[in-house]
Design brief:
Layout: H1 7-19, H2 22-28, H3 33-47, E1 52-55, E2 58-61, H4 63-91, E3 96-101, H5 103-106, H6 109-120, E4 125-130, H7 133-142, E5 147-151, E6 161-176, E7 187-188, E8 197-199, H8 205-215, E9 226-227, H9 231-240, E10 244-248, H10 249-254, E11 259-261, E12 264-265, E13 270-278, H11 285-301
Parallel strand pairs: 3-4, 3-5, 7-12, 8-9, 8-10
Antiparallel strand pairs: 1-2, 5-13, 6-10, 6-11, 6-13
Helix pairs in contact: 1-2, 1-3, 1-4, 2-3, 6-11
Length: 302
């Protein structure tokens, strides 16, 4: 028998997972605690299994609870989109968009797109979340993000996502301008293996491309001393040490103060930058406007 759950019950389940208690969840969805407790009991009776367990860390979702919450977030986000669409029909200016971004998109394309949407829709609320693709794609699937913009992934496990190419971007090895390796001649890769490196995490596309460059020449890729995707952290470290890193060219062109690309032989391959959304999902007018602004900014930079 198919369980029949109300939207209020889905809201409660998500709120308990986020806040760790029935009391805090009840406050979040504006119901009394006895009402929330009854909603939870009715939910568990409807699905015929416990959804949460009590622990010294608060309410912890069971496997069934986690599955319900995963789908519940998507349902609630779709309803939010519908509400935004109705509001936009009435005012033409409202909405909320949550955007995940990787370093490649953060240099100029995303900021330009954000500024355009703010000019055109004064009441829109924009949220930007940085991270690796694995982290951001999980948030996109759960409905916590509306779209992800950055370097397109080579993963084949993306059947539930739609992707759109925005522009191509090369990557380059970067060092401080006074680095001893700057000699006016391209640096051979074997000289770089023993240098100190800051690299993005292993699961990122940029790291994959970087290591492939060495492996194709029969070299073991450098082992990074630091793994980081933090622009500010990496920039400070490189300006104040002789550490090397690999950055998208668009980032260097946008803010290259004190840093410069190091000419190498051979060079890194060109990557593709684009936008991901949930396949077949309804997008709010504000999210559609954000994607159109990304297209415009990409054309301007191209």
């Amino acid at each position: 028998m198919t369980p029949h759950l109300s939207l209020r019950q889905l809201q409660l389940a998500v709120a308990i997972a986020e806040r760790g208690s029935v009391l805090k969840a009840a406050e979040a969805i504006n119901v009394a605690q006895p009402t929330a407790s009854k909603l939870l009991r009715d939910m568990e009776a409807e699905v015929r299994q416990p959804l949460f367990l009590r622990s010294n860390r608060g309410m912890i979702a069971t496997e069934a609870g986690r599955e319900l919450i995963r789908h519940g977030k998507v349902v609630l986000s779709q309803l939010d989109y519908a509400a935004q669409a109705l509001n936009d029909l009435a005012t033409g200016t409202g909405g909320r968009v949550a955007i995940g971004t990787l370093l490649t998109a953060s240099a100029s394309v995303l900021p330009k797109a954000l500024a355009q949407v703010r000019r055109e829709r004064r009441n829109v609320i924009l949220k930007v979340v940085e991270g690796t693709f694995d982290h951001l794609s999980a948030l996109l699937r759960s409905g916590d993000l509306d779209l992800v913009v950055g370097r397109l992934s080579r993963s084949t496990d993306l059947a539930d996502m739609a992707e759109e190419l925005l522009f191509s971007d090369t990557a380059c090895i970067v060092a401080r301008q006074e680095h001893p390796l700057f000699s006016g001649q391209p640096v051979q890769l074997d000289r770089l293996v023993s240098e100190d490196w800051i690299l993005p995490p292993y699961e990122t596309n940029l790291r994959y491309d970087f290591e492939l460059l060495f492996r194709q020449r029969g070299l073991q890729p450098p082992v990074p001393k630091i793994e980081s995707v933090s622009f500010l952290t990496n920039r400070w470290l490189q300006l104040n040490t002789d550490m090397l890193s690999v950055w998208p060219r668009s980032v260097i062109d946008s803010d290259s103060s004190g840093l410069a690309p190091l000419a190498t032989e051979p060079t890194l391959e060109t990557g593709q930058v684009g936008v991901y959304t949930r396949r077949n999902a309804l997008l709010s007018p504000a999210a559609e406007a954000m994607i159109e602004a990304l297209r415009t900014a990409s054309c301007e930079d191209g």
